[in-house]
Amino acid sequence: MPPRKDPKAFLQGAHAKGSGRSRHGINGNRVTGTLSDRTKVNYRKAYELFEALCELRGKKDPVKWAYDMETLKDFVHEVTWGIDGHYGEEAPSENSVKIVWKNFTAYVRQHHGAIPLDITGSVTNYLEQEALPERGAKPYKRKRKYATKHHCVHLGRQLWEADWHEYKTPGRRVRLWGQTLGYAFSSSRQGEILESSARPDSGRGVYCKNINFGIFRNELGEAEIGLLFKVDAKGMTRTPQKHPEHLLYEGFRARPLLLNPILPLLAMCLAWGLFRDYITDNEILDIQAPPEGEVYLIEWSAPNAPLYKGWNGEMQTASSFDSDRRALGKRAGYIDPPTVHDYRAEGLVQIDRNYSETQRKKHAGHRSSRTHHDYYAPNNDTDGQAAYLGDPVRTHVVDVFRNLKLERNPDLWQSLPAEKQYALKKTEGYLTIEKRLQNLGTSKAAGKERNKERNALYGERRRLIDKELRKCQKEQHRQPPSKDALDSTYYMGHYRARFARASRMMPERQRLAINIFEVATLRSKVGREVLRDMIALCSQKHEIETRLGLEPNKCHCGHLHSLEVDDSANQRPSRCVYPAILTVCLTELTGWVLRPASYEWMHIYICHKRHLVELQVFAEFCFLCDKWFTNMRDWEEHCKSHLHGSLEVPVQCDPLIYGGTLVAPGLCPGCIGDETLPATEQMKQYTRHDLWKDHVSSCFKQRVVKGQHGPDDIVGCTHPDTRCKQLSVSLLQLRFHFQDVHCTEVDTEVDHVRDSRGTKGVKRPLPRTDCKESEGNHTTKRSRRSLHAPDLMAKPLPEKQYVFINEIERMKSGLQGQVMQLDKL
Is the pTM value of this prediction over 0.70? Predict the structure, then answer.
């Protein structure tokens, strides 16, 4: 032990080491704690509310009135009534109001001096005793819910088996599921794996260097993939030695591949080139098991890179994941979808059952035992009946009823049904908004002001629809399914049938919808197929790469598809929308590698049809079967096989655009059932949404409205589906049936109110997909992405020929002066 230093010698040694070089900050000023940028913003927002109140009350000096008790009571009273409730509650919770009050007092204390305690105490008592009870604010927080394996499977089934949502890139689906399993199995907080929205630009999250990814020898003596990752837990940034570490592995027992956390992680790492020495899945899976007790570590190609990247290449934000998580939960039937903390709560319940208290605290990153007792432990984790009777304890019953904490309706409405929409459009609030929108068209206000007001009205209308939708979802009746119950997709088929209608265009997703639910190991044949399909999804840039029957090799002119394009070189988050004819000159002028806005299925359709007509006189393409026909008789027989033979007639009759590609044509539910028409007319295909809608409305008027039927007469559906033939309803109910079941919104004299913006979750009106010119006096606004050519529906092309002129050299000179503007877009 070294000898004790003399105090003077100690100080002299400190000076000699450099203590006197910088004495910055050594003064009599008070030192406050470090605040995050988000906290500063919240402080400022609360004070801005107070400033607005003072201006409204005619009090010119907000700093002076910040110490006035009457003004502060007025402030908290207005805040109490101004905050909206969450989770379906009209009033906010007490904590939501108190946070604003605390943020305000903190801002005043930081910038102008603390408000005396007798004033803040009195205002707080007024808030708790008068303002909050008068508002009806709840004194408790959101009730603890538990996302069990049962709920995780429901989300997985929606994501892989029936999901109609289109992500910007297919790999985002794989990433979302990998993150969901990672949160569920590690019980991590949301800001421990991804960058928390409360700490923007902090870069906190899991990086490749925080993960030990390797191969070990399992209990059966076989090679198995596992990883150990460390998280920066809440309150432990300054104590990295205490950071929780979590394990994920592939497992040696056969389980549903859906619940294998290594599958999505391994697929992402291979597709995105995160491994330094391995490229393919076979190279990883063929690694032999190491000796007992050892691990073969797989090195990262970029250790400092985040495991989950955002669009800017930095750590993905938790808010981005949270929006995807919540939207998926809504589509899966949850009014209040499971949160990350719900997964964490269920994970800690299971950890507490199987491990000691110390192990549970280490796993959760808790410092106190009271945290689990007060916030995570369930209130129904015991079997009192078995304990009283002396029977074996049944944890299964406890777990099953804990699932009820998260309510789910598999048939949850994703948009208002037609009848509810009709009733909403008749309300005073909706009609007022529509009238203001109509008056805005004749307003003399400036363009910017008019657009601003119009957008505000659109937002008000969307909020009105969303509020009505939430109300209807809560009131939606649900019964246990029966054998005689009709398929839910029959009633609300626009959503739940979209993936079934488009899946044939996405072979990887079509296989995953079956294989991922198989009980197998990762190294089995089906496990390897699932892994390769996930890798393919992560490597793709679009949901539909090629439409069946309209492959790129069917373009005979070489006009639009002669360019080898790759948008991975672009550093812009959005896709380029320049016409394909400009790609050569823009690439030469700017160095960008451009890609057309979407897969040019329409051009290939036009080009190949023109080619076949020149050879065979007749050509028609069945968008339902993805087959070409060059004989009129064969085409007619094929249409008959849809109507009366082995091929089906779809219940949903709207033109379906998925992944920027037409996967199903528009059909007329009235003409399909009219046996007096030729089969080719019954099965007439519409590739343009506006012409299809006009025809369906006209057909409905001729067959029903202008026929022998009055508004109160009982009518039936004209669609040949057996379920539709049993329908006997009023004229108005038939309209609702057309919209809900056949995805056909008809315009009749019954109701002239038209919602051109659509409702929540409905893409209406769909973009133009046909190249047919306007007929008669009918005029439509041309889409910038549309091609325009003569009518190509079920008849030979006209003899008019088109000559494509190469004007790239001329356009180069015209674009020289515009190149400087491109970087500003």
Answer: yes
